[in-house]
Amino acid sequence: MSEELEPISPAEAKEMYLNAREHELSQSSLDSYHYRLKHFIRWCEEVEGIENMNDLSGRDLQRYKTWRRDDGDLKPVTLDGQLDALRVFIRWCESIDAVEQDLHQKFKALMPNLNRGDQQSEDILTTDEAEMLLEYQRKFEYASRSHVIIEILWHTGIRLGALHSLDVDDYDPEAERLEFHHRPDSGTRLKNGSEGERMVALDADVCRVIEDWIEYHRHDVEDEYGREPLITTRNSRLNKTNIRDAVYRVTRPCYYGEDCPKGRDPDDCEATTYPDYCRCPVNVSTHAIRRGSITHFLTEDVPEKVVSDRMNVGQDVLDKHYDKRDEEVKVEQRRGYLNNI
């Protein structure tokens, strides 16, 4: 142990760290760091008996990785997120002489190898993230193309293909709703064909964004079939690839003013310029927005049948692939229903 280090317990170091970042991070980010670090504190205190952060070594970190993986039965992508939060914490501990310098570099050999499938299986735009993103867009990019894309995706939970299929006439301002039609003969399809055709109600704020997009920013063009697309480029309907790129660009936390969970500096990050937005390790796909939207509606006590119909997804598929509420949330929601009987 270096003589320059100053003794501090793991729990005290964690509290100092969260207090130090209180004015830098949103409450949801602080809560996320608290959750991810509490397991490390438990391991130090209850498993290894580590009372002083000065004693922490690379071998300890390896032992913690193995313990946390097995104790929590974690998937690689979840373990990656928890280890990365710990890496950022350890790097901060170096700045206050709590651990040996460059200890955070040991994480390079610890991080799980993830493929894109691992990441996509757990990708979700959380309610907090969606609200921060939309708050930013409403203030700084109101009724822009990327803004109207996110408003529609989040508030309807539709698939990429459904958004791509929309025409101006599919929006009914008086009824405040969107209509989805399967039109394979004119270039757009719905995943479930004619079974996916439906009407989706909108709230007044989303309607206002759509109307202002149409009036002030939408290019007045037709596609090759003579249809008037709702989401346009200068020449035609915005294609699916460009919709994906737009979503990857704006769901980077640094885009809407949040710290990078991976500790990257935006000035040095490769994912801050086109066409490399998709290389960001923490932004999300259109499908992750759909997953987050469905989870949000369920968390707000919207009945599963209503969510199933609105998002055009079977209830069995919804339960298996889209409902990301944790068990504690589900228990409390069931308690609320039972208490009202």
Automatic annotation (TrEMBL):
SUPFAM superfamilies: DNA breaking-rejoining enzymes (SSF56349)
GO MF: DNA binding
GO BP field: DNA integration; DNA recombination
UniProt KW Transmembrane helix keyword: no
Entries under Pfam families matching the protein: Phage_int_SAM_1 (PF02899), Phage_integrase (PF00589)
Origin superkingdom: Archaea
UniProt keyword terms in alphabetical order: DNA integration, DNA recombination, DNA-binding
Core-binding (CB) domain ranges (all copies): 8-94
Domain (Tyr recombinase): residue spans on this chain: 120-335
InterPro entries linked: CB, DNA_brk_join_enz, Integrase-like_cat_sf, Integrase_catalytic, Integrase_recombinase_N, Integrase_SAM-like_N, Tyrosine_recombinase_XerCD
Protein name as catalogued: Tyrosine-type recombinase/integrase
Lineage: Archaea, Methanobacteriati, Methanobacteriota, Stenosarchaea group, Halobacteria
